[in-house]
Amino acid sequence: MTEGAFWNLDGPLDCSLSSHPPLIPLYKPDLKSRMDLDVVNMFVIAGGTLALPILAFVASFLLWPSALIRIYYWYWRRTLGMQVRYVRHEDYQFCYSFRGRPGHKPSILMLHGFSAHKDMWLSMVKFLPKNLHLVCVDMPGHEGTTRSSLDDLSIDGQVKRIHQFVECLKLNKKPFHLVGTSMGGHVAGVYAAHYPSDVCSLSLVCPAGLQYSTDNKFVQRLKELQESAAVEKIPLIPTTPKEMSEMLQLCSYVRFKVPQQILQGLVDVRIPHNTFYRKLFLEIVSEKSRYSLHQNMDKIKVPTQIIWGKQDQVLDVSGADMLAKSIANSQVELLENCGHSVVMERPRKTAKLLVDFLASVHSTDNSKKLD
Question: Family, per the entry (predicted)?
Fold first, then answer.
């Protein structure tokens, strides 16, 4: 090689002053080849970039399914515009989510069921108008609301706590619509009886707290467990993926196909709270609390909507007729092919029933004002 000559892929670069015969390059790709190489590189880089989050997702799904469940709820709250806030009554903290602001339409307060949390309402919130003021609170001892060994977990005790929450938010500055399902329906019904001026209307979704003439299979099993003191085997407090699957089948008419990892995640989320859930469960089925709604239903004077799944295996659908006979201004909606988890199984239908009921009550109130 001539002194001063440098080689690259485009051929030699002669930096000497002397002349020499032309040199032949080792390789000189054409423009198309270079473009093909750039495209390949682009896909390799893109594939590597995409692979990282995909691998992270798969690892999270396999190793930390409970974390994915929390992310899922966070994502849906954010998507639906639900904001999480905390409010205190003395040394007691309530956690709640909300959307919208109080307006001419009644605010809606939603009370979830046993061992659930405020996010259980998200599937229904998705179908509710955005101009409604919605408030979903974590019930006493659940999720972000204070859990105290000194707390009164009876139905009356929970009613008092929810009233404290209402006072903190000044939600009763104007009568609001109260919604409750299962244990939350039990509390909601008793609340409407104890604080009639706070509530303008009521929706009870398969509420607990009624006294039936005959026990269904689920209640019979619970009584057997109580008699044998086998509190570790309560069907609503699963400790394994198999028990979680059985609980979902008990509570739902629709058979959800839930992956094993998600079942494990659901169990992992609940296990740290199971001691509390057992204590709460024994309290709400005690003589003091078991039939609180039954004992107070004739005191409910506000327009009341009763929604029940016809195939409810936890609380018998005949409870709807029982309530309707005791609450003068009430209407019953029975849902076909639906079990105890009404809000999860039929969110769109439940939302529509709620909106239609509010519209009918609201228009009736306006007519009375005009008269």
Answer: Belongs to the AB hydrolase superfamily.
Ranges of each domain in the chain:
81-214+271-370
Distance CA 83, CA 81 (A): 6
Q: Residue 50 in contact with residue 67, Cβ under 8 Å?
A: no
Q: What is the mean pLDDT of residues 330-345?
A: 97
For residue 163 the two structure tokens come to 């009233």
Q: Among the options 123, 182, 203, 289, which is catalytic?
A: 182
> How far is residue 148's CA from residue 245's CA, in Å, rounded to a whole number?
30
What does the pLDDT look like over 58-84, one tens digit per residue?
Answer: 444 444 567 788 898 999 999 999 999
Q: pLDDT band for 262, please (50, 70, 90 cuts).
A: confident
> Distance between terminal CA atoms of the chain?
108
Specify the 3-state DSSP secondary structure of 160.
Answer: helix
Active site residue 312: yes
The rounded distance, in Å, linking the Cα atoms of 166 and 173 is 9
φ/ψ of residue 83, rounded to 5: -105, 140
- 117 is an active site residue: no
Question: What superfamily in CATH does domain 81-214+271-370 come from?
Answer: Alpha/Beta hydrolase fold, catalytic domain (3.40.50.1820)
Question: Which is the catalytic residue, given 312, 316, 330, 341?
Answer: 312
Provide CB contacts within 8 A for 268, sequence distance 6+: 65, 66
pTM of the model: 0.82
Asked if 33 is an active-site residue, the reply is no
